[in-house]
Amino acid sequence: MRTLVFDGRTGAAGDMICAALIAAGADPDALSPVTDRLPVRYEVGETTNKGIRATTVDVLLAESGDDEGRDGEVRDAGRPAESGHEVDPESDHDHGDGHSHTHDHGHDHGDDDEDGDRKRAHSHAEGAGVHRSYPEVVALVESMDLPASVESLALDAFERLGRAEASVHGTDLDETHFHEVGADDAIADVVGAALLLNDLDPDRVLTTPVATGGGEVEMSHGVYPVPAPATTEIAAAADFSVVGGPVDRELLTPTGAAILAAVAEGVDRLPPLDVDAVGYGAGDATLPDHPNVLRVLAGDGGDNRDEGAAANVDDGLVRDEIAVLETNLDDASPEVLGGLQETLSRAGARDVTILPTTMKKSRPGHLVKVVCKPDDAEAVAERLARETGTLGVRQSGASHRWIADRAFETATLAVDGDAHEVSVKVASTADGDVYDVSAEYDDAVAVAEAAGLPIRDVLRRAEAQVRDRAGE
User: How far is it, in rounded angstroms, from Cα 112 to Cα 86?
Assistant: First the structure.
């Protein structure tokens, strides 16, 4: 199995993802659908970051007349610069939360001045062009005549950005108006990453836990803790885990989070992999003790979901090492119980179950059962105690679970000439044998309301479409 793994220990941004994929072997010429449709061009170059030679990608304005590089040479997409860049790429202004952020963020590559921040040498496309609404971004992507898989991936990333924006600001998805993320450079990053990944054509894409950075970030509405609100929303719905640090700067941008959420499964550690390609994508800041690069590894392997997974048995389900925590509660309010899914998930819980039970003196109570990784058990237990006030959390004897490979596909339902999309979860064994297809209920509710159909009909039609596609 051809597997590509992102190593996100110093975060991720759209330009870093594109650069890492090119460094791992993707052809920059694959980016032409973007430059054919938008007034931008890509400049691919190299820099050295804490001794690591890394690739840089900048999105520049095509109509600016800046057809010459710093040394007077014409640079086309795909032609490496002869020296490190002095341009500020995506930076951290690609935020789907629509706020303006300060320049003092985590992704800054190239030659540093005395202050540690570089000065721009080219006409950068950051924030340039029309700032579009979510429907306008969708229409633009659909007009690019992209391969179906590329269009689907890019639209998935933008939907995640849009839903994060809508959640943060309390708006509807179709009313969401992007600012930085709706500009030409951010669209070039998202669609570019999808095109480059398609060019590499891995069978599976994984990511280790992604660092968010720390400290605070300044927005137009005030100062917020890192990760930014939109990044937090995207990470909450993603399959991968996030971790704070290693520096007090913003390292994971909403665009970077959305791309990884759209393409990658989360793993705890690098899985067994026969590595044959490695790429480093440079960020645009100098970190004090860490190379500010996003690493990509590609090769055969990666069949197991994480380091603790043992070998597959008869190519069936995968063994996943876990810890199970339990506590009994007889005085927790409904509000506290209802919030445990979210609060414990942020601490590392993979699943939270709350069951009614009868306790001492026939008092009604609740049994809370939490599944997490063994390394997260202590942190999850402490959060469970703090949230509920319980005096003790026990760890039961379960040591592992058997899990399916999970993927999401999109079913498109035609109703009265309108197309409606429903996300469908597909469960399979490690050898690709599909045994369950389940439409996402929230998507089905939205389509049912829009199309005037019963929810169960939407569920049935979406699942049937994906089953037919899978050849069941």
Answer: 8
